[in-house]
Design brief:
alpha/beta; 3-stranded parallel β-sheet; two-stranded parallel sheet; 8 helices; 5 strands; elongated
Length: 161
């Protein structure tokens, strides 16, 4: 029930005024709050968490998440871009999130497409996570018909280093 601007300072002030340890405070917010708030909210929440306050996503799955969407529409495929799954080029974090996406969507029979494959190492990690449809600059491109036919006949060049 506060503005994103200055949230971290407001929380720190409240903690200082009350003497409550940061680890005892949990800030709860909904998916709708994340979707509709200004871009300033996420860095403020990150700063609050860095100070020891715990964050809780309230009504998880009921808003704009995949769970909320799957409750309203039957899907066949979801596309996840690695660059959008993490902050500040945290490839390991993005791969952990992708792994969770593969596990959850797989239980619903959905196919995952992973985008943003920029290196052979990332490609291999994405394939190891169970993703079979990929796109990105580390994958073969600008192939003529004969090269594409050869790659499809011998799938190894598409999936190995």
């Amino acid at each position: 029930q506060v503005s994103p601007d200055g949230l971290a300072d407001a929380v720190t002030g409240a903690l200082d005024a009350t003497g409550l340890p940061a680890s005892r405070l949990v800030l709860s917010f909904t998916e709708e709050t994340l979707v509709t708030s200004s871009a300033a909210l996420v860095p403020e929440l990150e700063e609050v968490r860095a100070r020891g306050v715990r964050l809780c996503l309230d009504n998880y799955g009921m808003g704009q998440s995949i769970f909320g969407l799957m409750a309203r529409i039957s899907l066949d495929t979801v596309r996840a871009d690695l660059a959008a799954l993490s902050v500040r080029d945290d490839t390991d974090g993005a791969l952990r999130i992708l792994d969770a996406i593969v596990q959850v969507t797989g239980s619903f029979g959905l196919t995952v497409i992973a985008g943003g494959i920029g290196s052979n190492e990332v490609r291999d990690a994405v394939v190891a996570a169970g993703v079979t449809l990929l796109h990105g600059r580390a994958l073969p491109h600008d192939m003529d018909r004969a090269a594409l036919a050869a790659a499809l006949a011998d799938r190894a060049p598409l999936l190995s280093t």
